[in-house]
Amino acid sequence: MNTSGTGQIALASLIGTTIEFYDFYVYGTAAALVLGRLFFPPAAPEAQTLAAFLTFGIAFLARPFGAFLFGHFGDRIGRKSTLVASMLVMGLSTTAIGVLPGYAHAGVLAPILLCVLRLGQGIGLGGEWGGAALIATENAPAGRRAWFGMFPQLGPSIGFLLSNGMFLLLSVLLTNSQFLAWGWRIPFLASAVLVVIGLYVRVRLSETPAFARLAERGEQVRAPFTELLRRHGGSLVLGSLSMVVCYAIFYLSTVFTLGYATHVRHVPRETFLEILCLAILAMAMATPISAALADRFGRRPVLLTGSLLAILSGFLLPSLLGTSTGVLIFPILELALMGPVYAPMGAFLPELFPAQVRYTGASATYNLGGILGGSLAPFAAQLLLDRGGLPFVGYYIAAAGVVSFLAVLALAESRLQNPEGVLA
To answer: Considering only Cβ atoms within 10 Å of each terminal Cβ, which end of the chain, N or C, has fewer?
Structure first.
């Protein structure tokens, strides 16, 4: 029997994604600001930035492996213990990046070690989101799955604020030379403290009712991934494609735009970091509103509306990023759109799969969508900017919106599964 209270369940699903995404965003911000020049051979600044963005994408390639690995154990032995393990992998990888030597001291070993630890970050995050979403939705009362599934969706906003706030504080307190020499390491090292807090909250959880029933009946499948491919391949593919637009929006409006604003538009780093804090607050406010609408009207109408708005924003991108004022407005506009394209996913993706493969299925769709929408987004946007100009960056966002719109349109309304009761 589940003995975890509502508040404890919400906190456990929220704090885990907060910490995991804090770790992920710390890397993305550092990649845009310093990692290129510190970990790669001296070359043209553009080449170093592209190399740093490529390492950013490595973690997305590792995330599906983490999804399948942790999904297997989450569907076989339980959600709780698997979530604890994913957090440890992510936290240890992030902390270790904070003590890595740069290229000047370690030569070619420096970028190799950076890539290895970035893979560790990706594997850990690959197992995190699906488990957090299941902890929330498998404990949710009838008619409120999108609302409960909203708590892990709030974690990225809080994690980003912590990450961005840390870099902003360091920009104010340190000189540029101090930041380059050692200040950039502090956000990575701080992850260790956050992980200890997260572990304390999660080890006190009870197993979810859905998995407890599976275990009691002995209904776990031997190979969840094989079962997923054999019986639920369509949901896996379409669910992954439905995630493309939110990844493209997020990483273009944060990682790419941070580099573009500071290096091309010459916006002071601390000014743009302040703007990103406002933008992420817009995302945080749009998240519960969108979740409530998804419970009221269904997941599909909210997701489809968000995708259409994202397509429109892609065509507005050149006029916004082409001016000093617009480059400050753009991230706020884009991250507000994260509400309708991202908040319903906390319920939408778990509802696509039965309990026997739900951890694997939800994690895999979420992270495969990350490869398609986010892994190369900053790199591709930088390349499109260099080769074709701002309109082509906008076309990238619009194309992502079209892909996700068509994928959601092809899927049935997910809340129709167990509409009158808890998620079985």
So the answer is: N
